Amino acid sequence: MSHNEDQLIPNLYRYIMPREAEFIDSQRVWTEYALKRQEAITQNKRLTLEDLEDTWDRGIPRINTLFEKDRHVLAYDKGW
């Protein structure tokens, strides 16, 4: 890769979330998921993709792993 001398290369850290922020965001996302799930149970309905769309690719492990075929593996990761 090459660039002109007067052209700045953006810093990679602008685009990547720090690990600590990822853990904090994960805790928030899973708490939000638990609240949505509890609300769905009290209303006797199922969670839909639209309910989880804003958090679908967030959290550690990712929320979307709940909807994968091999989701039983998630039970081993729950304590993390």
TrEMBL record:
<dbReference type="GO" id="GO:0005682">
    <property type="term" value="C:U5 snRNP"/>
</dbReference>
<dbReference type="GO" id="GO:0030620">
    <property type="term" value="F:U2 snRNA binding"/>
</dbReference>
<dbReference type="GO" id="GO:0000244">
    <property type="term" value="P:spliceosomal tri-snRNP complex assembly"/>
</dbReference>
<dbReference type="InterPro" id="IPR027652">
    <property type="entry name" value="PRP8"/>
</dbReference>
<dbReference type="GO" id="GO:0097157">
    <property type="term" value="F:pre-mRNA intronic binding"/>
</dbReference>
<dbReference type="GO" id="GO:0030623">
    <property type="term" value="F:U5 snRNA binding"/>
</dbReference>
<dbReference type="GO" id="GO:0071013">
    <property type="term" value="C:catalytic step 2 spliceosome"/>
</dbReference>
<dbReference type="GO" id="GO:0017070">
    <property type="term" value="F:U6 snRNA binding"/>
</dbReference>
<protein>
    <submittedName>
        <fullName>Uncharacterized protein</fullName>
    </submittedName>
</protein>
<dbReference type="GO" id="GO:0030619">
    <property type="term" value="F:U1 snRNA binding"/>
</dbReference>
